[in-house]
């Protein structure tokens, strides 16, 4: 009976996520009525809970671990609070964005609980802290005119944090990523990317002449160089992509984009010859099977897991995702593909694309140039990190070791991504209520 329920649940979760993802795109159609949108949002919420309950029940039936049921109850309460805060406390919030955030977190809770229930409890704690921290972020953004005046604070503080990691950070799989504070391990680059976007937005909102561009580029390059020296190649890639997109949008000059892209390519070539770990990553990407006992082990195991899962997966608790290195963090997408199936994994990709489009849509609707750049930059950060993570796991690009936002295990990653979503919500609410006020004055 347990095996039958486990097998059926694969298709149930695929069906629920497919409808959820479809609603995310369909609700944005211009001709969709407000009543139809509200209906889709309610259905999304219900389906999110159904997937969460489905996955956790399968895990419980296979493990008989009572903690799974207790965690399920806490997760349901947490999501109820999150949805209530963003929908009720902030009138005009971007509802599909809130739903998508909750769904990605739910998928993350399921796969982390399946792999390590102790880590799942910690992730739930991180999510609760994140909810408390980010609950006031939209309010700060709404009344935060001072945020555009802290330009060099963002730069100095961000570079300082990265410098501390470079000098005294702990080494994880060859890269300096973390620092320990009060018994907690923090990955500063996850938060510095937010400060970085604020800095670039401030600079380009002030001016976009050649002098301003060169100064901003120099500071951006300093961030990237410190990350490369720390061997945090994934974060370096996110910073580079984000800056190039923001540079192009701010200046509307394709020559700056071309020059920036050329410098990035030259930098990568130089890094290949200067740093052995860059050559190792490239070799592991080019032919992981040839070095499966060494540098190619992680990617090879990831590809084996994805192939084993096929289109519909082995079912939760029926595969061997624990054989994948870093199955909870850097390679969580492979874990999902093995047990939940390739179709489910593709739907996760579409859901992430939908979130990215919602970020861009929010940026397009904002009139203030500083806030527009801020929304664009944060959205690009999210999109770049998702692309780098999934691309590395599937061998589309060299693996650089980043997490899948909201899904992978990790307190810093989860909290920073929740802050990004909250900032976007704040910008969206600020614009929405500004239009309401303007309309009221005209009346």
Question: Largest sheet, if any?
Answer: 3 strands, antiparallel
Strand order of the largest sheet: 1-2-3
| Number of β-strand runs | 3
Count of alpha/pi helices: 17
Gyration radius from CA atoms, angstroms:
22 Å
Mean pLDDT: 85
Fold and architecture overview:
- By secondary structure, this protein is mainly alpha-helical.
- The protein folds into 2 domains: 1-142 and 287-443, no CATH class; 145-274.
- The protein has 17 helices and 3 strands.
- The chain has helices at 2-26, 34-63, 66-89, 95-115, 117-134, 137-142, 151-168, 189-206, 210-229, 233-251, 254-274, 276-286, 297-309, 332-340, 342-365, 369-393, 411-442, and strands spanning 170-172, 175-181, 184-186.
- The protein has a 3-stranded antiparallel β-sheet with strand order 1-2-3, covered by helices on one side.
- A hairpin with a 2-residue loop joins strand 1 and strand 2 (175-181).
- The radius of gyration is 22 Å and the shape is globular.
- Residues 435-443 have low confidence and may be disordered.
Which terms would index this structure?
mainly alpha; 3-stranded antiparallel β-sheet; 17 helices; 3 strands; 3% strand; disordered C terminus
SSE blueprint and pairings:
Blueprint: H1 2-26, H2 34-63, H3 66-89, H4 95-115, H5 117-134, H6 137-142, H7 151-168, E1 170-172, E2 175-181, E3 184-186, H8 189-206, H9 210-229, H10 233-251, H11 254-274, H12 276-286, H13 297-309, H14 332-340, H15 342-365, H16 369-393, H17 411-442
Antiparallel strand pairs: 1-2, 2-3
Helix pairs in contact: 1-2, 1-15, 2-3, 2-4, 3-4, 3-5, 4-5, 4-15, 5-17, 7-8, 7-9, 8-9, 8-10, 8-16, 9-10, 10-11, 10-16, 11-12, 13-14, 14-15, 15-16, 15-17, 16-17
């Amino acid at each position: 009976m347990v095996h039958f329920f486990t097998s059926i649940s694969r298709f149930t979760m695929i069906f629920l996520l497919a409808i959820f993802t479809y609603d995310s795109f369909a609700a944005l159609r211009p001709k969709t009525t407000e009543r139809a949108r509200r209906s889709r949002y309610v259905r999304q919420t219900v389906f999110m809970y159904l997937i969460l309950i489905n996955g956790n029940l399968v895990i419980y039936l296979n493990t008989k671990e009572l903690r799974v049921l207790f965690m399920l109850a806490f997760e349901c309460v947490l999501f109820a609070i999150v949805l209530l805060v963003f929908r009720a406390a902030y009138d005009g919030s971007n509802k599909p964005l809130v739903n998508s955030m909750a769904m990605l977190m739910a998928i993350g809770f399921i796969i982390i609980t399946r792999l390590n229930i102790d880590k799942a409890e910690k992730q739930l704690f991180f999510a609760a802290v994140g909810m408390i921290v980010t609950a006031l972020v939209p309010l700060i953004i709404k009344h935060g005119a001072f945020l555009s005046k802290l330009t060099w604070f963002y730069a100095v503080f961000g570079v300082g944090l990265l410098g501390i990691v470079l000098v005294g950070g702990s080494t994880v799989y060859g890269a300096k990523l973390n620092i320990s504070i009060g018994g907690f391990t923090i990955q500063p680059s996850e938060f510095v990317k937010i400060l970085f976007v604020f800095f670039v937005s401030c600079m380009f909102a002030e001016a976009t002449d050649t002098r301003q561009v060169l100064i901003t580029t120099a500071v951006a390059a300093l961030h990237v160089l410190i990350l490369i020296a720390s061997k945090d190649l994934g974060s370096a890639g996110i910073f580079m992509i984000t800056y190039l997109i923001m540079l192009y949008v701010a200046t509307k000059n394709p020559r700056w984009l071309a020059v920036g892209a050329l410098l990035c390519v030259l930098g990568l070539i130089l890094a290949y010859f200067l740093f052995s770990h860059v050559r190792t990553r490239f070799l592991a990407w080019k032919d992981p099977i040839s070095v499966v006992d060494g540098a190619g082990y992680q990617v090879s195991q990831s590809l084996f897991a994805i192939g084993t899962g096929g289109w519909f997966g082995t079912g939760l608790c029926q595969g061997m995702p624990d054989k994948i290195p870093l199955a909870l963090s850097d390679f969580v997408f492979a874990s999902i593909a093995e047990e939940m199936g390739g179709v489910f994994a593709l739907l996760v990709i579409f859901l992430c694309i939908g979130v990215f489009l919602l970020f861009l849509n929010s940026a397009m609707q904002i009139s203030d140039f500083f806030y527009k750049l801020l929304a664009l930059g944060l959205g690009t950060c999210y999109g770049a990190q998702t692309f780098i993570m999934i691309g590395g796991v599937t061998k589309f690009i060299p693996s650089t070791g980043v997490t899948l936002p909201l899904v992978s295990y990790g307190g810093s990653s989860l909290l920073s991504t929740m802050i990004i979503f909250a900032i976007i919500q704040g910008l969206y609410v600020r614009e929405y209520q500004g239009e309401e006020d303007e309309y009221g004055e005209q009346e």
